[in-house]
Predict the 3D structure of the following.
Amino acid sequence: MKETGIIKTEALTKYYNRGKANEVLALRDVTMDIRRGDFTVLKGPSGSGKTTLLSLIGCMTRPTSGTLFVEGRDISHLPERFLTDIRRKTFGFIFQQFHLIHGMNVLQNVMMPLYPTDIRISDLRSRAEAILEGLGMSKRRDFPVQGLSGGEQQRTAIARALINDPDIILADEPTAHLDTALSDEFMAIMRDFRQKGKTVIIASHDPLVYEKEYIDLLVEMRDGQIRNLCCNSPDR
Amino acid sequence: MILHPGILAILAGSGITLILLSSAAILGLKIVRKWDIRDSSEEQLALERRTYLVSTLVQYGLLFEVMALFLFIYTADDIHNLLVGAMCATGSLNANAFGFPALYFRVASLFLAAAWIALNHIDQKAEDYPLTKKKYAMLLFIIPVTFAGYILELRYFLNIEPNVITSCCGVLFSEGGTGAGSSLASLPAQTMKTAFFTLSLIMAASGISVIRTQRNPYAFFLAAVSFIYLIVSITSVISFISLYFYQLPTHHCPFDILQPEYYYIGYPLYASLFSGTFFGMMSGIIEPLKKIKSLSHIIPGLQRRWALFATSAIILFVIITLIPMVFSTFTLERY
Amino acid sequence: MRRSSFFFLYVFFCLLVIGAIVFWSEREGSRFIAKSPDLQEITAVLRLTDISFSHDARYTRHPSQADLFSAFQDYPGSIDHFPSGSVTAPPDFSLLSTRITVRKR
Amino acid sequence: MSADKHINILDFTIQSLLRRKFKNAGIILVFSFVIFIAGSILFLSYSFKREAVLILKDAPELIVQRTLAGRHELIPEKYAEIIARFPGVSDVSPRYWGYYYDSLVKANYTVISADRSLQTSNRLFRGQMPGEGDFGNAAIGRGIARARFIDIGDDVSLIAADGKVMDFRIAGIFESESELLTSDLIVMSRQDLSRLFGFPGGVATDLSVSVSNETEAPVIARKIRDRFPDTRPILRSEILRTYDAVFGWRSGLILTLFAGAMIAFIILAWDKATGLSAEEKKEIGILKAIGWETSDILEIKFWEGLVISLTSFLTGIILAYLHVYFLGASLFAPALKGWSVIYPEFRLAPFINMYQIATLMSLTVIPYIASTIIPSWKASITDPDEVVRG
């Protein structure tokens, strides 16, 4: 064991609309362990529960039952206020639809997650500029996001996910709207993060993602359950 | 009478406040019954989200309450022209039996709403929201006070009879200025002075000991002293402090110091007094909460900070009262 | 320049205007007060009791000295010359529970 | 404790308000207008109140009218002698005055006799005040001068009670600064006035009573009424109080009528706040997903309300002030003044204070803010994982 799990779940179960006619069991008894620095891919068809698992891990919603540890802390009963706090400090999110806020420029979109914190706006701006620089987006800094190409939107979304310097990066179907070249570019960026010691968790059913050789942990999901756990790292 | 713009404004403002606070209480009722922080159901999540609404409602309620109090005093001052024998707001409030009680209830509900917000603030710092049930139960006690305040206010304004010309016989033989409750004013100034300054010293001393030790008996003592201090100070304002501001030995009105003629000195005066005594009381009231595990590391720091607020506000208050006593030639000795 | 600064600037600007207004009011108000001794002298010399405010009807000119027989003069119904006709008796809502405040001793 | 967080959120709020320029500008416009109207009414009535009280400060302390069969009747001058002997009464003088209907301009004038003259230093009167026995001369107010196109030195003819025409030379005129008091006055000698109106001898219109101690006035009034049960004494303090009440009441009445407009606006605001567009809803979802807390969203909404209401409020009261004191309240003056032919024209003296501003806030901003609380909360509790689930 090189380190204890940064994410640990025990019998994690999630119902939506519990007790109503449209009740959905999205996740059932998921138990797994992701270690710091792991490159994890959740693989499975749509409706298999990967997105639900991702949003549970990302503290966006609370499990119906079971326990979830993030960095060793039980968060399964935490009120939303504190979940948000953890989310803001620990996670960076990249959504399938990018979910950039239209009508604002790239820089503002990147800065957005940290607006409601006590960071000085000038510090925040220079941090955002540095990240955009790193992703080769500097020239697009003041460009309104609705005019960007798919790849540029993707990179803006990545930059936004990185603004809080997260330990864990979560991505939901990040390559769904990208061509092969851009998808590879994206995966290269993610690989870089892993190199820097960050934990990356990607939900995807795109072979371009889950067939990469540098993946440490491949979680195959179906019907809200884990079908198969497959480890590439030699010490597992 | 009721169509006076100021009165309309108050009734609108405090009516809205009442609606806000009552809906907060009704929403709170369900939280009291169903709240279970260990539960992960969607229902609990909905309750959790509802707490945001309740606290927002109470916060706005408090804000409007402050505004309505200000308007109430100003309107009372404005309508004294309409009433025979009323020289200032005191006279207007004495125009019928509901004036002063309405004011007391307003102040009381102000204090209660502020206390609620303070508790809410503490509660939200702990991950298990330990005070939730108590908090929302307490909300149910604020409502009757606010409600009573509103009813009294309504009755006060409805019962005011402006003495205007009536077509029947011209002169209204109204009784001129029947003794406006002057018992407070007649308290001996020298005795009040001694009591006031002694108590100020005790208050400051107990505040400092809470800041330094945060120990149990001191905190309770500070709370008790704060409460007594609030009453003694208001009595003192009526009995002698206001006289120094007016430089008149007979003018005992506690409201005229809010007027521009006296450089609005009443605002910092009352603001420092109210906030000082409020934080003094609160730092004692939260003492028992130290026993709750998830709060035990939050309370002492907060207590120290509040005691610090209380002490500095009271020192400011005393300084303001001292200004005219020290710098003007007016003395009360002869009266 | 931050967006919020524009807002603060606008508020600041408005407050400045209001400050100017308050200043101007003080000046004009004191000008009025300065001329008021002259007005008060006219009042005193001519023994006037009312301001010359609305001349729609005789009884609205000196409302405090009103004739008692003018049509529709007394509330309720005193709206033939609205709003001047409503000067004399603002509706006394205590009429709803009539009280007679005339006291004879 | 730092303010950065709040300023950041305010920044974001303003940016998102600007993105929906037209909608928000519309709301600010309507709200400013609502505040402008309410503010104008308040300023206007407050100024009237203050001026009336100041002007009438030296009015007679006590007026004694006689009533006969419920009607105002001329009072015998001998009443004056008896009242003058009451202890505490320092002076009783009969007043001779009446109304003259001028069919030419269809207006009522107030004809009054003066037995004293103004000091020459009085800046509000030009020319000469016709005194006792000063036949054929009159002093007039600006309103009449305007209505009849006359000035000092001109003649004016009035028809006397016996049907004969009486000519008067204008010897004096009241300056327009005093119009709130003198607009419709015609001052003439007592003899002319008696002839004009056909007064019988030995009677006056009413009596003005001065008392040596003002606080004694009600007592003296009571004594007069005991001695002469057919009289109606009117106290100055009651006149002042009545003016105070009347303007308070009138502006209150207009404000009440105007409440309809306010309610309409509140409904608009509520509707605007409730009817979040799909785009706005998505935006809030994104914010929550990327780490904004519910209370941060509530803060956006708070700022939104504050920016809109503060901007509108400040704009509204500034416009109201300009309207009332620079443009003569052209929109609302008729509602407070009443209509008439000889309309007094005057610039109101501005009085503005915290009380008016607080009243106005309480009538406009508080209802607006209150109406947006629940819609804001509804927006703020959007599920963060809604965005992820798509």
About this structure: The CA atoms of residues 38 and 128 of chain B lie 9 Å apart. Chain B has a mean pLDDT of 84.
